[in-house]
Design brief:
Blueprint (H helix, E strand, L loop, with lengths): L1 H14 L7 H34 L1
Helix pairs in contact: 1-2
Length: 57
């Protein structure tokens, strides 16, 4: 997942709207998106593990 974020950031810097933003703003946005993805991943992981624990009982 981290590779995907890095690849999209690189693509954005080269050809996307991030090319029109200063580098520090782009990095801050990338960190914010990465944190959001990490929180989403952790919440989904917990949600699915709770379901599988209940099903095995």
């Amino acid at each position: 997942m981290l590779f995907l974020v890095a690849a999209l950031l690189l693509l954005g810097v080269l050809v996307g709207t991030a090319a029109h933003l200063p580098v520090p703003v782009t990095i801050i946005a990338a960190v914010a998106i990465s944190c959001w993805l990490l929180v989403f991943f952790i919440r989904e992981r917990r949600h699915h593990s709770d379901k599988t624990e209940g099903a095995s009982r």
